[in-house]
């Protein structure tokens, strides 16, 4: 007897086992996610169905279906469906109680909770992350009593809000009895798809298993056909099936099930024919109802179908029964769903123009009448009115959807609906009255929502249009738009913010005192501050404070005091700066935005002052509040970098590295992620992985350089790590080009950030001296190393009042010490070691100083002292995971017994030269002794001329020789 679907699952045994294994791990208390990808029709839903049917009775299975409405997908639709299933399973009161402190946020997704629980109609506090917390709490708490399996199908259609929530759940829930199963069409992940961008992150998550379903081979197609037909297929028939379906299980099933006994000539010719084969065998009333259901989506509730269908209940039941018997529809709880989305798509294409308008109109009107679900269905209403070509109603629905999405922190959907309303504006004569706002206001609002959704480039495009249409005579509106654009530009690392803010101030000139003017003055002060224009920043902050005081606005007073405080501190007036920052903290109480800004600058100040433990505590407090407010990717990213940086300074490398990787996964806009990226490159270099550090910098250099044009901290931090990598490659001139920003005439002193760069600049000057290399200014004017040392020491003198200056000053003296000022004086390096052991110095300085001390001792011929110093450097480096130093020590220990620079004799030269140099360097030195040039050495050793030059430079540095002739002399004596 022929089956209507394959009675057995074919070719998916290993995948089913993987799902079962993941479930077993989850019920043991280790959260797991299984991501199932594959092309349309490959069998993802069938696999999940088989898995779910095999689960024990105590497992709670929650299912959610992504909606195929493109950008009109209702926000959180699959999550809402899953939560409503959970409410039916455990009860609404229990669900509410399980959601913890953020229970009120859950009512945004399930409005019915406000009618059955104590949440009432009070406004929801917090943000999207607060809502995320509520859902995570529910799943964790429920899973303590019973294992939970959350299935979300067709993730390629999912709305951005649901994807963000799922990402959060997968990242934060680690030890719950929870299994998350996600399916998606891997052949529909277009460039720019949010899911496509998320997949690499999921691939790195050890709690995620990814399955990619493949097509069936000929043997498996035969097995499936045999199961359907209840007898083996004819070989010619099998060949036709395999050729036409190419092993896609759904197509195999449809072709075999629908071909009947008609033989080869009865096979459908095209994919469309295969998809419609069952549909076309149904009665006309059933086909008509299927077209109506197709207009509603992949899944339509029975209640909604009754509302949109003009047939009697009996006729609806009869048509549904026929479609279910033919395996076109399936019952999914209280809804009808197409057995496969491909069938729905094919049937939807059969709609006649008149049917399309009528059916979508019915859906729109019925959904509007179902007020209980209005919050979840507003975007669907907009979709149906658009499909029905009713512009006025689509505009009204889009405005409603915009407002509802914004209130539930679904910023991507709100932006989409806002943009749709803007597109329709000119086609609706009374648009302003219907929306209760002007077009300029809607453009401005939507640009703000786009910024919150992480679409700053699009936000700028919309706000440019708003500025173009706005009447400059409306000073407040015009100035606000200019201020907002300045903020958007800063977010993505583009210039122009300062000019826009000055323009906004000019527009407000002569206007009454206002919070807006205080805001613009404060933001201008902030931009000047990050350019290290501290005097100007203080002046603007004073004005902002006076303006805010006049209008009695404590949050803006806090921001002004905050910026003034950091500017004073960074400029060297530390006590006054700290007092201003403390006052800003007092003024910020009760206002989250002002408090976050306080936490950002206060933690940064403490870190720069060397008060690392305090910095960590302050930044952690702020980062937690940022997460609660839903600004984890903006202010939260900065605060996380302010936690991570002092952790590295404390030597807590493992903890800092774990936090850094998690913070980078947030993919914050460049204005907020730049410090994290620089820290990642720097930490990777510290670990000793030069190659990875180089790759990271190459990938991020463009965005980091762009940000460096707007932020002195970013510029100095990038110059430091870029220079360190260049010097590690032996490119001394390139290293100087990076750090030469210190002596740029336009450079403004910023002691806390200048000091690390000054110390490294001294090292570069010494490296140039070793080889007699001439360095140049940024305008390519040649400069002697003596002149450049003077510049470096002048910069050091300007920064000498900073609390951490003593450690860096000692390093500078050591780098430039020794008879030839090339860093070979052991006594100076010993002083550097002592200075860098102070708690105020970053932990990485002491291992470096100890290693250089060991090098200097080796160069002086003190083998025993070198070994002891090297062991100290190794111990300190290992304690903080500084592989860069550990590797250098290993190399030094291999060749300890190194000759001295100024007090050596021939016997010590001969005894220690072999240990001092690597094998390749000894080969190069032999050729130098024979009088070969770098080019000739390169030819002899089959290396590049540049590499040969690097080897020669290393030989001169390690031996203390000042010329090639002197190095050749050493080679001659060592061979005796």
Tell me the radius of gyration.
Answer: 34 Å
- Give the amount of beta strand, in percent: under 5%
Number of strands: 10
Structure annotation, total helices: 50
**Helix/strand/pairing category:** mainly alpha
Point out poorly predicted stretches: 118-125, 261-265, 372-376, 897-911
How confident overall, as mean pLDDT?
87
| Order of the strands making up the biggest sheet | 2-3-4-1-5
Shape: globular
The profile of the biggest β sheet is: 5 strands, parallel
Distance between the termini: 97 Å
Describe this structure in words.
The chain has 976 residues and is mostly helical. The protein contains 50 helices and 10 strands. Helix 44 (863-879) packs antiparallel against helix 45. The chain is globular and about 105 Å long.
Task: Summarize the helices and strands and which ones pair or pack.
Elements: H1 13-27, E1 32-38, H2 44-53, E2 60-65, H3 77-90, H4 92-98, H5 103-106, H6 113-116, H7 128-145, E3 148-153, H8 160-172, E4 178-185, H9 194-204, E5 208-212, H10 218-229, H11 235-245, H12 249-259, H13 271-280, H14 284-296, E6 299-301, H15 302-308, H16 313-325, E7 329-332, E8 335-338, H17 341-348, H18 353-369, H19 374-387, H20 391-407, H21 411-424, H22 431-435, H23 439-452, H24 456-469, H25 475-491, H26 497-508, H27 515-530, H28 534-550, H29 554-570, H30 574-588, H31 592-608, H32 612-629, H33 635-649, H34 653-664, H35 670-687, H36 690-708, H37 712-728, H38 732-739, H39 751-771, E9 775-776, E10 782-783, H40 785-798, H41 805-815, H42 826-836, H43 845-859, H44 863-879, H45 883-894, H46 906-916, H47 919-929, H48 934-941, H49 945-959, H50 964-974
